[in-house]
UniProtKB/TrEMBL annotation:
Full protein name: Guanylate kinase
Similarity remark: Belongs to the guanylate kinase family.
Domain of life per record: Bacteria
Gene of this entry: gmk
Calcium keyword on record: no
EC number(s) reported in the record: 2.7.4.8
Enzyme class: transferase
SMART domains in the cross-refs: GuKc (SM00072)
Domain Guanylate kinase-like, chain residue ranges per copy: 3-185
Residues engaged in binding ATP: 10-17
The species this protein was found in: Segatella copri
Key words, A-Z: ATP-binding, Cytoplasm, Kinase, Nucleotide-binding, Transferase
Length: 191
């Protein structure tokens, strides 16, 4: 089994993180490891540099942007950056891991463009926007206006789905998990 690059993107509430976490926990033989991103925000709680993130100052982050060291990055708020270093991905591949990217749709498309056939990109899609609304409401964590913002963003994100290698519709979690496992396993077993 080769190691590879696995890109997962989805609208919020589609179940992407649940599927990815299941895949990593239940299938250690795949040797999956999350890409460790950089951020310019301060560590929270027990977060450690080089474990959850690499913590950089905004100035350090901007210097790495200037030096074209990122696969993808985004400035979420002024001087609050998140991004993936090319060198970190290569280090993880050299260590024998398959690198998992759990990223937004633009980041997913950019990473796929950079790596081409070395990467497998999967878009996890809810069965419908109505079902997505039901899931977001069911979480009970967001105010109604936040849910509406997430749904508007989801409609936009869904337009990116055709740019991914595969679309997995998460209407039944176990079925979606098995479909993702087969896609990843087949990809990593290619010669």
């Amino acid at each position: 089994m080769k190691n590879g690059l696995l890109i997962f993107s989805a609208p919020s509430g589609s179940g992407k993180s649940t599927i990815v976490n299941w895949l990593m926990k239940e299938h250690p033989e795949l040797k999956l490891a999350f890409s460790i991103s950089c951020t310019s925000r301060a560590p929270r709680g027990t977060e450690q540099n080089g474990v959850e993130y690499f913590f950089l100052t905004p100035e350090e982050f901007k210097a790495k942007i200037e030096a074209d060291e990122f696969l993808e990055y985004e400035e979420v708020y002024q001087d609050r950056f998140y991004g993936t270093l090319k060198s970190q991905v290569e280090n993880q591949l050299e260590a024998g891991d398959s690198v998992v990217f759990d990223v937004d749709v633009k980041g997913g498309v950019n990473i796929k463009k950079f790596y081409g056939g070395r990467a497998l990109s999967i878009f996890v899609q809810p069965p419908s926007v109505e079902e997505l609304r039901r899931r977001l409401n069911g979480r009970g964590t967001d105010a109604p206006e936040v849910i509406e913002q997430r749904l508007a963003k989801a409609n936009y994100e869904l337009t990116f789905a055709p740019q991914f290698d595969h679309i997995v519709v998460n209407d039944k979690l176990e079925k979606a998990e098995q479909e993702v496992y087969k896609l990843v396993s087949d990809f990593l077993n290619q010669e």
